[in-house]
Amino acid sequence: MQKFNPAFSGTDVKKYFLKKNLKKDLPSSIVVFLVALPLCLGIALASGAPLFAGLITGIIGGIVVASVSGSQLSVSGPAAGLTVIVLGAITSLGSYPTFLLAVFLAGALQVILGLIKAGTIGNYFPSSVIEGMLAAIGLILILKQLPHAVGVDSDFSGDEGFLQQDHENTFSAITAALSHFSLAAVVISVLSISILLFWPKFKKLSIIPAPLLVVVMGVIASLIFSGTAYQLRPDQIVKIPVVNGFSEFLGLFTMPDFSALANKDVYIVAVTIAVVASLETLLSIEAVDKIDPIKRVSPTNRELVAQGVGNMTSGLLGGLPLTAVIVRSSANVNAGGRTKMSAIFHGTWLLLSVLFIPQLINMIPLSCLAAILLMTGYKLTRISLFKHMYHKGWDQFVPFVVTILAVLFTDLLKGVAIGMLISVFYLLRTNMRNPFFYRVTNEGDKKHIRIKLAEEVSFLNKAAIQVVLTNIPKETDVIIDGTNARFIDPDVLETIFNYKHNAYTKGIIVTLENIQKHYAVPKLNIKVEEDINKL
Fold first, then answer.
1. pLDDT digit string, tens, across residues 184-234
2. Which residues are listed as membrane-spanning (predicted)?
3. Which of 403, 411, 373 shows the shortest CA–CA distance to 38?
4. What is the dihedral sign for C-alpha 397, 403, 405, 406?
5. Under DSSP, is residue 478 helix (H, G, I), strand (E, B) or coil?
6. Phi, psi at 514, each rounded to 5°
């Protein structure tokens, strides 16, 4: 292999790293393609949309969104979290073309949100909540894919909600699946997991991606079981639309109904999709950055613009709303993806598979794809992560665990919202305990107390300061030092000045140092932010 020479030109450097990354991005893109294929179909089915709509959304998420996005590892496509919204919207709006207009408008709104820098909200998601979300997604993958792994596929692939549309829940579905499993599916799943575990250990052979080998093995095993009593049923195998020629392919696209622009319900659906899709995207982006081996930081505002462009394109071509999706993105990271080329290639494979090899794709057992997702889930929810969060302390561990349980028993957005509330509680608790530095000295029989205020003293600190001032003993000299304070909340100032005014009744002498009567709210340094964004 050619070694990197610092004397290379800029073009040579780009070619070197492109070639180096392609060795990881190409195999990873195949894994993401195999994972995304059944998810796109399953989500389209659950949304009450044409199956092709799920595929076109995956293609756009791979090629269009990844090309515009600044994230190197995120993969976009139709999201399970939007299925209920989409199903209800198609029904309420009366026609699929009218719904497509709402998707187009939602994309336009996302572009606007990105341009006004609304993506910065993603920077306020606590680390413990994001880690909890990742672990929860890992557990959900394991629990939800177990029925598919044993050949019971009554619910669609990629469903993340606790309550399922088949009237089962996450746990009852597993019990039901184990009571009438398919032997062929179980054998294929066990062989698939064995390959995923042991094939990478053979370094010389690992040039062939283990997931690709799993799919080949799955097809062969399916053919072996064919014609026997254990033959896989049609619903246990991937099923994509078969098109006969490019003209028939073009006939699958649907245009939005722009005559419905006067329908106010279209705008309500558009805003709903834009808000939910943007939140899910920001959460996924933050989570993917957490598991990026290189620890890159994705530009969130640019991501909203990319998602908006993707949803506008999807609406124009007949697709579903799309978001950055943590399942596909995690599969990309775990498969060794390095740059956005992996996501772009995965979209290309989706497109080519529909055009040229639909019959071959329709031979892949869902159980071998479930095995790939089971391994992805295991890596996301490894035991070492729980140990790591526990050692960080209760203020990190409790929001982490609560987020896991909440996501597991509700859905992604509700679970994260609950985790955020718990995290905010611990944040407020910490702030209330750290508004000042407290030092006591003695001169003879008289005590001297110096209270040095922190840099930021908010109304959340009022109670803690009030308690300390109230408990100061009589005949004490008190100095309240605001030298380091850039901002003191008016409520806290009122408490301090009232205490100084009334303290003489207890023989307490209060001295205020560098405390103003009014503090302006500190302004963000917008120029610095703009300069950074230009880099």
1. 999 999 999 999 999 988 877 767 888 989 999 999 999 999 999 999 999
2. 26-45, 51-68, 75-93, 99-116, 128-150, 170-198, 210-230, 266-285, 305-327, 348-377, 397-428
3. 373
4. positive
5. strand
6. 55, 40
Provide the whole-model pTM. Answer: 0.79
Q: And the tokens for 497?
A: 């000045």
Q: Which domains does the chain have, with CATH numbers?
A: 19-407 (no CATH), 434-513 (3.30.750.24)
Tokens of 219: 């097809």
Three-state SS string across 282-309, please? HHHHHHHHHHCCCCCCCCHHHHHHHHHH
Q: Is 311 in contact with 324 (CB distance < 8 Å)?
A: no
Number of C-beta neighbours around residue 524 at 10 A: 7
Q: Do β-strands 76-78 and 436-443 pair in parallel, antiparallel, or remain unpaired?
A: unpaired
Reduce the DSSP state of residue 236 to 3 states and report it.
Answer: helix
Q: Which of 346, 315, 310, 246 is nearest to 60 (CA)?
A: 310
- For the chain, the C-alpha Rg in angstroms (whole number) is 28
Instruction: Indicate the DSSP class of residue 122.
Output: G
- Residues composing the chain: 535
pLDDT value for 261: 96
Q: Which residue has the tokens 């053919």?
A: 223
Q: How many CA atoms lie within 13 A of 535 on its CB side?
A: 6
Q: How many CB atoms lie within 10 A of CB 510?
A: 21
451-478: string of b/e by CB count within 10 Å (b at 16+)? bbbbeebbebbbebbbebbeebeeebeb
pLDDT score for 179: 79
The answer to whether 446 and 478 have CB atoms below 8 angstroms apart is no
Mean pLDDT for 113-122 is: 92
